[in-house]
Design brief:
Elements: H1 2-21, E1 28-32, E2 35-39, H2 41-92, H3 96-109, H4 113-126, H5 130-143, H6 148-161, H7 165-178, H8 183-196, H9 199-211, H10 218-238, H11 242-250, H12 260-272, H13 276-289, H14 293-301, H15 307-321, H16 325-337, H17 341-354, H18 358-370, H19 374-389
Antiparallel strand pairs: 1-2
């Protein structure tokens, strides 16, 4: 468009000049160091135009090979990008072999070989071709040595996806050699230790993981810390090491100490250390902040020195959770421990009417045995067993306590 405007302006200017100089073409004399050149004005203008065109032509001829090369390269890059896009589409559609082929072809002439090779490695992985996967990753590393960390992390992720945990650890240790505090690598190592049950190695990572405050992997970091802490609590409880139990608990963040599973582990560990009174306080406090059927069940299993006080606490929860079968079972346990057989029977029968569970039938059978109702107790045990084994559940006849069994 711009060239057309220039040509139009040139034609107009030439027409105007021709109009003025046609009657008198003029005379031009150029004398330089004994060389004389004579010409009319139109001839000189025409000569200058021809010289300009000639120079432009020569310049174009000199630039032509480079422009031709650029055009060929641009066309090659365009083909490579098309193959990259096609390869990614084939992978997304599940055609991994074809996608791998397209990505490999595009890598040879494309301007993003790293992306091609990394995705080709993923395509090979999806076909179970681990050796070919590693070859693509090696080519990716050779193409972009500065991206070695990205290549190694990708390799480790692929190895983990196929449960090649030992190989993934070896790959991540290469990252660790060049970047000892690489967050993502540490999180991946922690995940592998967790899956392998290598708790000692995971414990060694905890100080570093706890220092990380902002990371896209914060959910994984929180999970790893909780998992390691949970295992530490269980292990310390099994050894009866109350000091280690409390040290692990106090090392958790306030947010972690509100997690139901960690509260449960802590309370159970305290019970294993024969500190039932503190375990009861921990569960009661947690239940006051947030309801949990799991903790309600655990509360009924804690054997403090004052079961009647525990029962009063559990019964206070019934005001808003009276239809919770887990809480009713907990109340029944505490009532049985307090030798309040009538209350225990009432709570168990309510629980069985709401949601029959093997545990409720077991406790009901034990209670009926205590009360001397052996036939009914045997029926309760059979029905609980039927539930556990997937048999037919026959709801027992719940008649309520006999007059002589009621509390005064």
């Amino acid at each position: 468009m711009r060239k057309s405007i220039y040509l139009l302006l040139f034609a107009i200017l030439a027409s105007i000049l021709t109009h003025f100089i046609a009657p008198d073409p003029g005379y031009v004399l150029i004398n330089f160091r004994g060389f004389a050149f004579e010409s009319s004005v139109p001839s000189l203008i025409l000569m200058m135009i021809l010289i300009y065109v000639l120079i432009r032509g020569i310049v174009y001829l000199f630039r032509a090979p480079r422009k031709f090369g650029q055009a060929v390269s641009a066309q090659r890059q365009q083909r490579a990008r098309r193959k990259l896009n096609r390869g990614l589409i084939e992978m997304a559609e599940g055609n991994w072999k074809k996608g791998e082929t397209m990505l490999a072809q595009g890598a040879k002439s494309g301007d993003m070989p790293l992306l091609n090779y990394l995705n080709a490695a993923k395509a090979a992985q999806l076909q179970g071709e681990h050796e070919r996967r590693d070859n693509w990753l090696m080519l990716a590393y050779e193409q972009e040595p500065d991206a070695s960390t990205a290549v190694l992390l990708t390799q480790a992720e692929l190895q983990m996806a196929h449960e090649q945990y030992e190989e993934a650890l070896a790959t991540l240790r290469k990252v660790e050699d060049s970047n000892p505090k690489h967050t993502h690598a540490k999180v991946m190592m922690g995940t592998i230790y967790e899956k392998l049950g290598d708790w000692d190695s995971l414990y060694e990572l905890l100080p570093l993981l706890r220092k990380i405050k902002k990371s896209p992997a914060m959910n994984d970091i929180t999970r790893l810390i909780a998992s390691a802490s949970r295992h530490q609590l269980v292990a310390a409880g099994n050894y009866g090491d109350k000091g280690a139990v409390n040290k692990t608990w106090n090392g958790l963040t306030l947010a972690a100490r509100k997690e139901t599973d960690l509260v449960s582990c802590y309370a159970r560990a305290l019970c294993d250390c024969d500190d039932h009174n503190n375990a009861e306080q921990v569960v009661k406090k947690a239940m006051g902040a947030q309801w949990s059927a799991e903790l309600a069940t655990l509360y009924g299993n804690i054997e403090t020195d004052a079961p009647k006080k525990q029962l009063a606490v559990a019964e206070s929860w019934l005001q808003s959770r009276g239809d919770d079968s887990s809480l009713l079972i907990a109340c029944a346990r505490l009532a049985m421990r307090s030798e309040l057989w009538g209350k225990a029977r009432s709570y168990l029968e309510s629980s069985l009417s709401i949601d029959p569970k093997p545990l409720a039938y077991q406790l009901y059978g034990e209670l009926l045995t205590q009360l001397g109702e052996t036939d009914s107790a045997a029926a309760a045990f059979r029905q609980g067993l039927a539930l556990m084994t997937g048999g037919v559940n026959l709801t027992p006849v719940l008649t309520g306590p006999k007059e002589e069994e009621k509390e005064n």
